[in-house]
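We both want to read discrete structure tokens more fluently, so let's practise on a single case. Would you write everything just below, so we can both look at the same thing?
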Amino acid sequence: MSHDLISSSVSFDSSNSSVLLVRDVAGDYRHIDADEVLQAAQQVLLSRVRGSDVLGSPQAVRDYLRVRLGGLEHEVFAVVHLDCQNRVIDYVEMFRGTVSQTSVYPREVVREAMMRNTCGIIMVHNHPSGSTQPSRADEMLTQTLKQALGLVDVRVLDHLIVGGGDILSMAERGLI
């Protein structure tokens, strides 16, 4: 889908004072809905994250995660795969859960890391409640994955919890 976003407040209809239009590759204009805008924004943020140095641009990673996971009504567990220079290889949403929990399988996390030749990971999940406080289950999962990934020389750099617009770093809290 290739198109250019041209305006956020063009009005052709007196009943709708703010219309968002895009121009497709043929040069035709059409209305665009909020979901398409958010999807395009996520792609732009992901392109800024992929290949970037996580330690050199932590704000870009946090911005992407905030937009990607902050508004979800269900839990998602994802992994940011890093190369040996801590550059982002990929972002993979691995497990989807309910409004209050998700099941995470360490074997699958290790398998994905091995397939991507990952040197380090940042784990991330969201709390739809908006709270970033880690649960005891979050802490136990972090330690379990750290041990499992350690067996194949993959470092766990952090486990981030996204709650609405806030992000908590378990590493900064001394929980890694």
About this structure: The longest strand covers residues 88-96. Helices lie at 34-49, 58-69, 106-115, 136-150. Residues 38-169 form a domain with the Cytidine Deaminase; domain 2 fold (CATH 3.40.140.10).
